[in-house]
Automatic annotation (TrEMBL):
The record marks 12 as: Discriminates between blocked and unblocked aminoacyl-tRNA. Hydrolyzes ribosome-free peptidyl-tRNAs (with 1 or more amino acids incorporated), which drop off the ribosome during protein synthesis, or as a result of ribosome stalling. InterPro entries: Pept_tRNA_hydro, Pept_tRNA_hydro_CS, Pept_tRNA_hydro_sf. It is found in: Cytoplasm. It comes from Microbacterium fluvii. This is Peptidyl-tRNA hydrolase. The active site is at 22 (proton acceptor). TRNA binds at residues 17, 69, 71, 117. It catalyses: an N-acyl-L-alpha-aminoacyl-tRNA + H2O = an N-acyl-L-amino acid + a tRNA + H(+).
């Protein structure tokens, strides 16, 4: 029987936040669902969920967007993991990353949260940091803008031109991680873009 994977995009709920840098993880989940023609339904674990497949006969995917705020993402993720019976090593968390330049994707399993409160809360709720992550680079603000304000701003005009490519590449990274494993996905997505 095919494995089931939970793929969670971190972000904040509501129209005020949907186009912000902090919600790029949820944009990736939307892309994965759109590729499969799936819509989202409300789930009792405080999330919107689409159940689908990587491709016919392959892994089952539970695509999820918590409806809680970013800093309390752990409850919905742990609730979904329990509901579907999914172990942390098959929970892919997709999130924005300040310490990676915009237009860059990095993958890892485990390690610290790098000051990302959503990732911190997920690790706390799951009782482990050992889950795969697809980290979507948003870069740091230039000048004196606070990082906390930067992540809650919409992407700039120049960034918006490349955003569909970045979101598509991150969705590709999720699919490859599940299909071929972390190392293969890292080798492809950590290479410099040509």
């Amino acid at each position: 029987m095919a494995e089931t994977w939970l793929v969670v995009g971190l972000g904040n709920p509501g129209p005020r936040y949907e186009a912000t840098r902090h919600n790029v993880g949820q944009m990736v989940i939307d892309e994965l669902a759109a590729r499969r023609g799936e819509g989202f339904k409300a789930h009792k674990a405080n999330a919107r969920v689409a159940e689908t497949w990587l491709r016919p006969g392959a892994a089952k995917l539970i695509l999820a967007k918590p409806t809680s705020f970013m800093n309390v993402s752990g409850g919905p993720v742990a609730g979904l993991a329990k509901f579907y019976g999914i172990a942390p090593e098959r929970i892919v968390v997709v999130h924005d990353e300040l310490d990676i330049p915009f237009d860059t994707i990095k993958l890892k399993t485990g390690g610290g949260h790098g000051g990302h409160n959503g990732v911190r809360d997920v690790a706390k709720a799951l009782g482990t940091a050992d889950f795969p992550r697809v980290r979507v680079g948003i870069g740091r603000p230039v000048g004196r803008q606070e990082a906390a304000d930067w992540v809650l701003d919409p992407f700039g005009a120049a960034e918006r031109q490349n955003l569909p490519i970045l979101v598509g590449d991150a969705a590709d990274a999720v699919e490859q991680l599940i299909d071929e494993g972390l190392l293969a996905a890292q080798q492809r997505h950590h290479a410099p873009r040509v």
